[in-house]
Amino acid sequence: MPPEIPESEVAAEWDRNAAVWAEQVRNRWDTFREHWNNPAFVEFAGDLSGKNVLDAGCGEGYNTRMFARRGARMTGADLSAKMIQFAREAELCEPLGIHYERASYSNLTPFSAGSFDAVISTMALMDGPDFPGAMREIARVLRPGGTLAYSILHPCFATKGMGWIRDESGRAVKFTVADYFNSEPFVEHWKFGHAPNASEVEAFGVPRFDRTLADYINPTIAAGLRLEKICEPRAPESACALYPESFRRYRDHIPWFLYLRASKP
């Protein structure tokens, strides 16, 4: 078994990321989120208006607020105390009726069994060490008939050996995958490339726990959830028009995200 990164270290990394992350996400400088991932995931998750919904791994609450504005009764949970602090401050500035708890999505003890109509998780479940535990806890807090929808980096493409092959003009013409079965966790360092102050801020340290497709689907089923739909959203032409260097290669070659929806019988 590869060495693990404990949840305490994951929390510490996200505490360090929190201030810059919150500023840049709220300024809409996460272009993949704004122009590809969020529009596609909102459609995939379906109408959650009027439902009690948990956002598992909510971060500073940007997406939690997005679903609250669409009519859901939202609760957010995150491992990072700093992220939860930023989320609560945003709720004070713009009250949307959101309750935030500091909690791991693998240990949702603040919430009783069957207390949510739906659970969403947006781009968080690949960043924690205990995915099977997360599925068990999410299944526990869902009421019978409740639904789970989550988005992650696509495990078939976001591997340690990924890379682009370019032609003589520099255009990406092929995508390579390697080390698919390498599950050793690591801390990835990157920035939002379109942030105007990208050169001035430290890179985010993001703990990553690479898994195979089976490592995601089988624990979801084992937790007693019934698979309903998967989606591999394609980068939209509208995003390619705005940022061709960032999006065109993905639209032409690979899905970068994987969505899964399941329900509790």
Mean pLDDT: 97
Biggest β-sheet strands, sense, barrel = 7 strands, mixed
Question: Which percent range describes the beta-strand content?
Answer: 15-25%
User: What is the rounded Rg?
Assistant: 18 Å
Count of DSSP H/I helices: 8
Structural class: alpha/beta
Count of strand segments: 11
Q: In a few lines, what is going on in this structure?
A:
The protein is of the alpha/beta class and 265 residues long. 35% of the residues lie in helices and 25% in strands. The strands form 3 sheets. A 7-stranded mixed sheet has the order 3-2-1-4-5-11-10, with helices on both faces.
Comma- or semicolon-separated keywords:
265 residues; alpha/beta; 7-stranded mixed beta sheet; two-stranded antiparallel sheet; 8 helices
